[in-house]
Write a structure and sequence with these properties.
Elements lengths: L14 H9 L5 H16 L1
Length: about 45
């Protein structure tokens, strides 16, 4: 299989495009939770 071939899911989604868009989308839910937890820990001091 060629490495430059576009991969599609069964329903027709371009997998590489989804991965690219996700990487550009910013913080994940868990990353935001971690940042907020650190912020509130610092505010308590």
């Amino acid at each position: 299989m060629s490495s430059n071939k576009i991969q599609y899911a069964i329903v027709g989604t371009n997998i590489d495009e989804v991965k690219r868009l996700n990487s550009e989308s910013g913080l994940s839910y868990n990353e935001i939770k971690q940042v907020l937890a650190q912020y509130y820990e610092q505010k308590k001091k």
